[in-house]
Write a structure and sequence with these properties.
Distance between the termini: 65 Å
Order of helices and strands: HEEEHEEEEH
Number of strands: 7
Strand content: 25-35%
Strand order of the largest sheet: 3-7-6-5-4
């Protein structure tokens, strides 16, 4: 009986220690499982406005656009049951960066979806 109680207590402590908060690419924090890769970054020789428009079209095609911030050039969308964030910023005079982050409903990372969205944005630019 004591051993079962200790096993349940240890499992509960391990579970509570593995859940925390992660930062999203739009600057907010969400409850999720930390310390896993969930962001894909791409760099393109295009203006920020063109990449932002392409990202918006890709997210509308794949799911539902939930939020759009034209000041910080960030987008939030729901694709199936996942949440996807896209941030576009300029890192040089001719180079722009796209960061795509995807999380599952329970807070787990979905790097495959982030990579797919990034690839579709790149193809839309050509």
């Amino acid at each position: 009986m004591k051993l079962n109680f200790l096993a349940v207590l240890a499992a509960g402590c391990l579970l509570s220690a593995s859940i925390g908060c992660v930062g999203t690419v739009d600057g907010r924090r969400r409850a999720a499982i930390p310390l896993v890769k969930d962001t894909i970054e791409g760099r393109y020789e295009r203006p920020v406005a063109q990449i932002f428009q392409s990202a918006k079209e890709v997210l509308n095609y794949n799911g539902t656009l939930v939020g759009e911030n034209t000041i910080s050039n960030t987008l939030e969308a729901k694709v199936d049951t996942r949440t996807v964030w896209v941030a576009v910023d300029e890192i040089g005079p001719k180079i722009s960066r796209v960061r795509v982050q995807a999380r599952k409903k329970g807070g787990g990372a979905d790097v495959d979806l982030a990579a797919e969205i990034d690839k579709q944005i790149a193809l839309k630019l050509k």
